[in-house]
Design a protein that fits this description.
alpha/beta; binds pyridoxal-5'-phosphate
């Protein structure tokens, strides 16, 4: 028996486990201290009423013989795929049909699993800093990874890779930097992929947080993207499904490599390894696209964005260099002086009892930066900023 040795190439600690262990240690040593968490990207608002109503109704359906549902179709129920195709795409002028949509239990699974349909010898490009799942799942699969630096100088939007790469992961609005990409710049990536026979995995998990006009909500707003891009969505951050679990992947039929349809390949993989998101959760997902659902979800997003503005303004007043927080729930701040980002993490934890995320945990270029999230409770966010002021 041999293990998969590629796993040994992973860095020892997953970022959030390391944070959790430092917080746990501090709390055990200082049980009297109240910690405010603006670190992990989990939401804090309960599910909105129209979503709860749909969920409740579906739960009762499951308890009656006439309306009971067993296994869901593995691509997702049509009622949900139709709503997604209509609201997220047709209304935005993008041409995506329901049979190009694959409902899943969330974007993390899709981000991690999608690489299975690609050969091991492909070269993968990810940004630095990066949402760790893209990089780690490709390390597990033994692929070569190249990094596209995202720095203050390029506005945290990567340059096109200097060498030819086969698969590119892009995430906008970005976790962790909060940066967005213009349509013009995104078009350059699409053109690069067309020219180099590459595939772009576009993670749009934070699309709902775009507030400024002119920022693309989907990569399919770019010309030719149907031939080169897979797009991933989550219901976690817009509608608070982090515990409920729901997402979807779009694999257009025009995406054909070596004469093989990637839509068909992903359909095969999905059907083999996945038995469908729960009926009740898909009904809750459908409610996100109803008039009342959309209104309620937009209100929650707006409230989180008020926290983002609050954090941005408070940090700017304190003299920090601040990025993000305008079209994204993440604020990316420059750590003062020559301090390292884990050093700043420890300082905030120990002196202000505030938890954030050290930029270095997202990659080398994240060193010297720190991520705060707008997903906290408003009062907690205000109190956290007060504590930082008093540092
Ligand atoms: N993609 C990005 C960029 C994320 O930041 C996250 C969660 O933090 C996810 C995907 C995971 O989303 P889900 O909860 O749908 O698995």
């Amino acid at each position: 028996m041999k293990i998969n040795k590629d796993y040994l190439n992973l860095s020892e600690n997953y970022l959030f486990s390391e944070i959790a262990s430092r917080v746990k240690k501090y709390s055990a040593e200082h049980p009297d201290k109240e910690i405010i968490r603006l670190g992990i990207g989990d939401v804090t608002k309960p599910l909105a009423t129209p979503i709860m109503d749909a969920l409740e109704k579906a739960v009762f359906e499951m308890g009656k013989k006439e309306t009971f549902r067993g296994y869901a179709p593995d691509r997702g129920y049509e009622f949900l795929r139709n709503a997604i195709a209509d609201v997220d795409y047709r209304k935005r002028g993008c041409e995506i049909s329901p049979d190009e949509i694959f409902v899943s239990d969330g974007a993390k699974s899709d981000c991690g699993n999608i690489q299975e349909i690609f050969d091991k010898d492909n070269v993968v490009a990810v940004t630095d800093p990066v949402y760790p799942v893209y990089a780690d799942t490709n390390v597990m699969a033994g692929r070569k990874i190249v990094y596209m630096p995202c720095t203050k100088d390029n506005g945290f939007v990567p340059e096109l890779p200097a060498e030819k790469v086969d698969i590119l992961y892009l995430c906008f609005p970005n976790n962790p930097t909060g940066a967005v990409i213009t349509k013009e710049n995104l078009q350059k990536f699409v053109d690069y992929a067309r020219k180099n026979d590459s595939v772009i995995i576009y993670d749009a998990a934070y699309e709902a947080y775009i507030t400024e006009p002119g920022i693309p909500h989907s990569i399919y707003e770019c010309e030719g993207a149907r031939e080169v891009a897979i797009e991933l969505h989550s219901f976690s951050k817009n509608a608070g499904f982090t515990g409920l679990r729901l997402g979807y992947a779009v694999v257009p039929k025009a995406l054909v490599k070596e004469g093989v349809s990637l839509n068909a390949l992903w359909a095969r993989r999905h059907a083999t390894k996945y038995n469908g998101a729960p009926y009740i959760v898909q009904r809750a997902g459908e409610a996100v696209y109803s008039m009342e659902g959309m209104k309620a979800v937009q209100k929650q997003v707006q409230e989180y964005m008020e926290n983002a503005t609050l954090i941005r303004n408070a940090l700017t007043d304190m003299g920090y260099e601040v990025y993000g927080g305008v079209n994204a729930p993440y604020i990316w701040l420059k750590v003062p002086g020559e301090m390292g980002s884990w050093e700043f993490f420890d300082l905030l934890l120990n002196k202000a009892n505030v938890v954030g995320t050290p930029g270095e945990g997202f990659g080398k270029c994240g060193e010297g930066y720190f991520r705060l999230t707008a997903f906290g409770d408003k009062n907690d966010t205000i109190r956290a900023m007060q504590r930082l002021k008093e540092l």
